[in-house]
Amino acid sequence: MFSVTHRCLRAALVFCALLSQVAAFGQAAPDAAAGPQATPSFDILEFQVEGNSVLSNGAIERAVTPFLGEGKQMAAVEAARVALEKAYQGAGYLTVFVDVPEQRVDAGVVILNVTEGRVARLKVSGSRYFSQGYIREKVPELADGKVPNFNEVQRQLALVNRTEERRVQPIMRAGVVPGTVETELKVDDKLPLAGAVEINNRAAADTKPLRLAASVRYENLFQLDHSIALSFSTAPQDTAESRVLSINYTIPGDDQAAWVGYFVNSDSNVAALGSVNVLGKGKTFGLRYVRPVTGVVADVTHSVSLGVDYKDMKEDTRSGSSVISTPLRYLPFQFAYNGSFDHGAQRLTLLSLQLAVAFRPILLRDVDCPGGTADQFACKRQGGDGGFATLRTDLRHSLPLGSASAGSLDLRMGGQIATGPVPSGEQYTIGGAETVRGYYEAEGAGDRGVLGSVEWRSADLGVRISRWFGDEARTGSGNNAGAGAAWVSQSYALAFVDMARAYIFEPATGQAPHTSLAGAGFGLRVKVRKSVSGEFDLAWPLKPTTATPDRSPRAHVRLAVDF
User: Fold this and answer.
1) Most exposed: 6, 42, 45, 247, by fewest CB within 10 Å?
2) How many whole angstroms separate alpha carbon 230 and alpha carbon 232?
């Protein structure tokens, strides 16, 4: 029980209230004879709230205090009841109701009765691949005997529903015992196993053109929502040229955060400049703590990550008949930020920041180097000392061009700054399907770099393509209207201009201090039945390089199947 008192008036008005009741009693008969009885009024000096166990005393006071005072009528009591009930609703207690029981208003005290609808029984149904006990455990706000706060229920359900393979919907109904509710968590799930196969021509210069990649992911290890993902890519025409294996393991937290551990093993054979070949093999072990940042600004989502990588890069430098091993081991600390800013009207901004910092004293060691023993970084790079920092940025903005049929414009700016010479694995690479189209992958690399791109995208062409292939389900016409998804679910054409430049700190003898690339062209994106996607770009290189000496167009092709 909790009482709210009009402290300044109560002592002075109790005596006045008694006098008014005596006067009213003495005048009751004459007033009745004289005409219609006036609406009774009374003093409300205190609200006595009974049955509350979830709302704070301060919240109750703020809700009902405005209705205290002299000469009040039943409308004030009803207004106080409504205000208190709204306070419960606003705090998330949707199963709590307030009523005014029959009573005598003695000494200005009004009783408000609170009925807290508690959960009598929680049932989990429909789950085939996920543990019912785990789902029940992850929504403790709906446990038996609880007065559920639906703000907290919503947060807990968001965590349960963060995997695409499981959707949990709460259903509430009145309990058998009056004043209770029964809750059912209805689960719609599917096997948490997914995979993809992809073939593309994202190859480096002087290697076979095709690349084949496959990945598989399982998202409910040990019935704890742990996920593991494995991926492998290679050059199918000559597997010795490129082999990359990666393993990712994710442990989700109770606050939308997650721990991510990963391992990458790469084995490549890439010809470099002139008669000098660089054979690269390396392993990377990484750990990340990823946490979303919510509730700061509406329509904005943020996430930050902190972590560290251990990189063991093994390279052999071959010149003529001599081979010198130049391994490199270092431990860069990583910080990353990702933000999505929804401006409405189909305008969206994406921002990514990645900071890497390495300290020279960590893993300091000497290695065999041409000309004698030297520090591993100095052997690898002229001017390298193992202490460096890089900041990589990527900013993208999309905006519609007037009417929907005009399409949209996608703008991109990116780059990297560095404190000095960095290992090759930390350099900013340019060229290829994701940076400057029209060139081989990573034709240019530098310690610093800048990238810019302008891309026009047409309106969705899926409707037209579906009509061309006789698929009328998407357009809503014909006998098949509404029968299912269109054969082509999404498609758009595009035209683009890409530009980038990479700079080298302390270039070696004969090495260019910078590399500039620019390309322009057009392309097409197609998605079929949500499982098959294709990309085609035809781009003309505008600046010649050693690997791309002329301006002949280059096609970038990618075909992927998800299952």
Assistant:
1) 247
2) 7
